[in-house]
Amino acid sequence: MDERTLGELAAPDVSFQTMSIQYPDGQCELKSGLIHLLPKFHGLAGEDMHKHLKEFHTVCTTMRPAGVTEEHIKLKTFPFSLQDAAKDWLYYMPAGSVTNWEGLKRVFLEKFFPASRVTSIRKEICGIKQQDRESLFEYWERFNRLCTSCPYHQINEQLLIQYFYEGLIAIDRQMIDAASGGVLVEKTPAAARQLCLRWLQGRLKGNEKVNMGRNVSTLIEKPAAAIPGKCKDLGTFTIPCVIGNNLFENVMLDLGASINFMHLSVFTSLFIGHLKPTDVVIQLANRSTVQPTRLIEDVLIQVNKLIFPADFYILDMGGEDSNSGATTIILGRPDVA
């Protein structure tokens, strides 16, 4: 029979409350450097818990002390990776309810990645659409991030490629089909994904410096700039091509350039799409630099019977216009090599 008084029974229990995690036997000393490197998860709606678990695994396996098992170090360090609502959830779990890492990972995902969220992401993948003014590259990146955010969406590769393809706007779908030599959906899932990856590789990102050949530099440098004399003309490097409904007789080829450029007046007359800002800096032959006005992506060009897409950097070349007789379009190595 309990002989304690009512006051003693109502008094708070000051003894240590066991945590929800039951640690394995053995010592495991945590270094402050390890704790500081741990990723943080707050339990917010937009956070990616799968990414958190991957980063957590990387830190623990890299910084694991000698003689300590991976299971032990993960159980000991996981509470330090949680903040705010996520940490509250862990401390409110029943004492001793977690005995191993797989169990802890399972209850963590059940709490912050329930079945309803899996269903929601599956619906997003099935109904994904390319947005207005969203480039093909941006659409591809968004699609891959969405798929990665739910590793067990249970949608096979064939359907993933089909959903991506059906969500494309018409002009980008035509370009993908042209790059595949027919229709993308007629290829195997693996071949279709590889084609998309190869086609999207090699695009310039912001703050990248590009070296231009001497021929291109001569055309776009300001008249006052000092240009070394041309020793020998290697021949004619121009071809006719069609952009939209317009024929250009003298489009220059420069195999030393890694980009394409177009005169601002030519772009204005073509009405071929919307310009995008760019941070690319072009370095000319004399080491001076010029900043393109804007970037226009995926312009369809026809050379003889070949139709292919190209990105153009728009340059304003000191008052020249498209009717002055000067070369106003230059194609670089990626499109003509």
Describe the structure.
It is built from 14 helices and 9 strands. Helix 3 crosses helix 4 (70-77). The chain is of the alpha/beta class and 337 residues long. A hairpin with a 5-residue loop joins strand 5 (281-283) and strand 6. It folds into 3 domains: 25-112, no CATH class; 115-200, no CATH class; 209-336, Acid Proteases (Cathepsin D, subunit A, domain 1, Beta Barrel). The protein has helices spanning 6-10, 32-37, 49-63, 70-77, 84-91, 101-112, 115-126, 136-148, 157-166, 170-180, 189-200, 214-220, 264-270, 333-336; strands at 209-211, 238-243, 246-253, 260-263, 281-283, 289-290, 294-303, 306-315, 329-331. A 6-stranded mixed barrel has the order 2-3-9-4-8-7.
The biggest sheet, with number of strands, parallel, antiparallel or mixed sense and barrel status, is: 6 strands, mixed, barrel
Secondary-structure element pattern, one letter each: HHHHHHHHHHHEHEEEHEEEEEH
Proportion in helices: 25-40%
Radius of gyration: 30 Å
Domain Retrotransposon gag: 77-168
Protein name: Retrotransposon gag domain-containing protein
Organism: Phaseolus coccineus (Scarlet runner bean)
Pfam families: Retrotrans_gag (PF03732)
